[in-house]
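Quick question: who can interpret this fold?

. . .
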Amino acid sequence: MANVVYDNKVIESVAKDLLTTSLNTRSLMTLDSDLVESAGMLKTVNTYTYTGEAEELANGVGNTASKRGTISYTGTDYRVKLCQQAYDYTDEEAMKDPFIIDGMMKGAVQVMTNKMTSDFVDVIKGNGVTLGVTFANGGALSYDIIVDAISTLNLEDEGQLFVLIPNKWKASLRKDPDYKSAMMGQVIYNGQIGTICGIPVIATKALTDCAFVMTKEAVKLFMKKDVEVEPDRNPDTRKNSVYLRATYLVALADATKICKISEAPKNNPGA
């Protein structure tokens, strides 16, 4: 009977479940599967701006030309990424300490999770985000600043909003009397530390110098293929390999659904 240290199917199933559920950043984006059936590795994503003004009209009078609706858009090209993490172990290593299999699997999943989170942060910190508010240089994030950002978005339906802040800003926000008096509310997201105006506040190590108020409609996650986990084995050397793979792109989809919060630049007296 062949020496079987681990079951390929079990490893593949457990790793895939872990990877799918651990990519917490997915919950902050709109999932789009358009690329699955499309050939090519390039996607052009358009962001649209509509301008126009409704008018009260007298009998037989049409809209003023300057107030008729127009739409403009900016197209940005995004390239699909194939991201992979792999790890190896031998039968002897697994027999010496069987817990290494679980530890390596969870470590590889975390690395993949961190990569997608990094791609998400790169997009929201990019030049495409045009709405923003600032607090005084040397000051701190506060309840009022977040309320200002919510107001800047000017959304009729605020039910899908959430706030992302850097971990290092948690303490100053928690000391804000207005924030302390706010209710925690229902915990919806990993990393949630409370709510402001009923909107979840999420702290993350992925951000360091700015925060965002946004909805998941602001950013899209285009999946080219489903998450893959592929095990392999060399019977001669008794070496086992596991490959975790995700093929996707992250793109800014609606700049009207995201507002950046940052510290104002320091005044330069000599300027």
Notes: The chain has a mean pLDDT of 85. Residues 1-43+78-271 form a domain with the phage-related protein like fold fold (CATH 3.90.1690.10). The helical segments are 8-22, 91-96, 99-124, 143-153, 170-175, 177-180.
